[in-house]
Amino acid sequence: MSRSPSLVACCALCALVSLLPAARAEDPPPPAPSLAIVGARLLGGAEGPLASATVLIGGGKILAVGADVTVPEGLPTIDGTGCTVIPGLVDAASSLYVRPEDRDASGGGLRMADGLDSYMDHADQVLAEGVTAVHVLPGSASVLGGLSTVARVSSAEGTLELLAPEAALRCQIGVPTGGSTSSLTRLNDYASLREALFGAREYVYAQQRWERATAAWKRKIEPEGEGGNGRGGGPPAPRPERPAKPEADPTNASLARVLAGELPLLVEAYRVVDIRNALSLVDEFHVRLVLLGCSEGGKLAEEIARRQVAVIIAPVSADFVEPSRVRYGELSLTNAGALERAGVTVALAVGGAQPLSTKLLRASAALAVQGGMSPSGALAAVTSVPARLLGLEGRLGAVAVGCDADLVLVRGEPLDPRAPVELTLAGGAIAYRREGAP
Amino acid sequence: MRAIPIVLALLAPAALARDVLIRDGLVYTGTGAEASVASVLISEGRIVRIAPDIAPSSGALVLSAKGKVVCPGFVDAHCQLGLRPGEHSETVLPASDDTTPWAAFRADAPAVRASLAAGVTTVLLAPGAGNPVAGPGCVVSLSSGEALVPAASMHLSLSPEALRWDRVPTSLTGLWELVRATLTEARSMSGTAPIALAVRGEIPVQVRCGGLVDAEGAAGLAREFDLRASVLVPSSPAKLPEALAGSGLTALVADLARSPLERSLSLPARLEAKQVPFAFASMAGGDRASDVRTSAVLAVSRGLSAEGALRALTLGAAEAIGAEALLGSLEPGKRGDLLILSGEPTDLASAVEVVLSGGEVVWERGQR
Asked: Nearest 5°: phi and psi at B69?
């Protein structure tokens, strides 16, 4: 598979994935369509852009997409003429639903999914900007931050749908906690991270040894097959002792999943030296690395591309962040474009410290285009790419059959913050509708 | 160009400056006039002519802007760019009406270069809000680090940030008393001290406010002392446009992206509707660069007119900082501070391709 953030490639893959379940015979019949969007330009579809598309929605899913899809008679229909329909946007580094006091919460065993507050009333404003899913990360106060989560943005207060309860293990190298950083803390961070991974490897070995020993133990205590029914012969052998179970530990359990390639290791790093150290973790531990932040990544574009490491650029612009939280090194709008041209898979995130910052996702993408990223790459970077990185390909990030009906209808260029969002669908339901929208 | 020492920039011989002709761009003059395709001729660092067809003189640097947009360099009406954190305010004396932040300005700070790359050619370098009478601000050219107007404005702070436990005033009452006493005393001063220029109306006064009540207080103060005042209220209270309508005060709109509340994003549109003059002020400093344009585009997304946005980034900001005779629009006699953009200035996706300051190319796209 090509690692380039080509829209076509991603969408083709989505289409492929979505076809698979349809082929199975035992599947329940597809739900009846409940809504149609007609006449809108389509971007982010499975078969490339369409000048005028019809999208059928039912059961929270996209049932059909195409230029010549027939709309059943009497179906509620939204006329999207003059608008563009795109997949719901995904902010790959958000703090939506995170209370201010929890913003810096971090620790190896922490699960961000446990800390989201669905009663925070920011969701409506975020939906009005077309963002339907957020990747919420633990804080960066310690080297190991914990497990991030992906939630659907919901317009109903108090409800929260976790799309990926445990999406990635977040850590950091060289991100200062007290406002300043030094080479000593960067070295310490990297060393602690390596130690943690070494430790986790031992943890895995200990688990495996225990499993083998237990299997051997079971063989010993089970009665022999034929011949001996245990009554004849000499005195019974002493019953062997069951091997002691190694101590379970949530941090190591998460790291073990990273080592097994089940979870991506998300490393927040900004400066060249820290990014290089993060990259060397791929060589040493063969982890599926995703770089977060990565403001100086453009300088190492070739090295990042060679290892097929994906990048979540956050923030795109320091405008979106409270001053002096982090030393970003050289933060330039040209970063995303430079990485894209080198063939790196790039997602764009607001990376703001405030829950409301996620409103600026389209502005972030527009700024990346200003800095030289292609418009199609920027759209993929806030839709299909984060979906793929977070293990939600085939569900989020594409207007394709079988995907969740997270759709945005925009009047104008979809990533232009001046272009009003007319309608946002989240999980098939109308989550935002602009006054006077079709 | 990366880090010109200030002295060198000041001594740069004028003879080196050659004519620059920017041809055939879609020119926004910043005055509010409709854009038209024209060429801009700059000589000795100043704009001399804008016309549809100008023949290049021999030896002139000719830049084609065909298919591109030309507009004035953006002006940031209030920031602490180039200052280290904590160097904004000298807070030992509450009335530091002569302490200029200019003394601590570093033209080679990365954030200064990044701001220039974003099209910000000129800023008002302002003292922080830590003192009731905070001192003069300085109009600085970001490319050369030159102080174009050393004492351009006087800064007052009615915000609780100006109260400290270790010196008077410790209360807002005391703060008001001190501000009034300082302004009253300045009325009888005859020299060119910045505070004296301010009460004579020769330079503008910027008043930092914590909330709506401070902004109303600032309007009263401006009436009482006949000040040319603007207010910077970072909390963007919802009723600010109503409080300022008809007061003659200018509103400085703080960076909208850092805290994108709807009442902040819609503030410029609501100020425009109430005909309150306004300008964008990044409040950038330390590592954070100024990108007033992002704020302007976000304001357009909430109903501000594109013309209003461009004006607030250019001539409106120059007026707010009292530098409108020198810069802020493309008109003969003004500084050759201008940008070549790949598209409309209020389209966030259009890139800054060339930045000219004082008639010299100081940044080009592709340059780090």
From this structure: -115, 135
pTM: 0.89
ipTM for the assembly = 0.89
The pLDDT of residue B43 is above 70: yes
Q: Is there a contact between A370 and B286 if contact means CB atoms under 8 Å apart?
A: no
CA-CA distances (angstroms) from residue B159 to A383, B166, B173, B175, B179?
43, 17, 12, 9, 12
If you ran DSSP here, which 8-state letter would residue A239 be given? P
pLDDT of residue A14: 47
Q: List CB contacts (< 8 A) between B259 and chain A.
A: 354, 356
Are B285 and A357 an interchain contact pair (Cβ–Cβ within 8 Å)? no
**Which residue numbers in chain A have pLDDT < 50?**
1-5, 7-23, 179, 226-228, 230
A contact set with B (CB within 8 A): 125, 317-324, 327-328, 330-334, 352, 354, 356-357, 359-360, 363, 366-367, 369-372, 375, 413, 415-418, 420
Q: Which residues of chain A neighbour B309 with C-beta distances below 8 Å?
A: none
Q: Is B262 on the interface with A (CB under 8 A)?
A: yes
Residue B92 pLDDT > 50, yes or no?
yes
Contact at CB, A356 and B260, closer than 8 angstroms: yes
Give alpha helix (H) positions in A97-231: 123-127, 183-221
How far does the CA of residue B221 sit from the closest CA of chain A (Å)?
A: 31
Give Cα separations from B234 to B159, B214, B254, B255, B260 (angstroms): 10, 12, 5, 8, 12
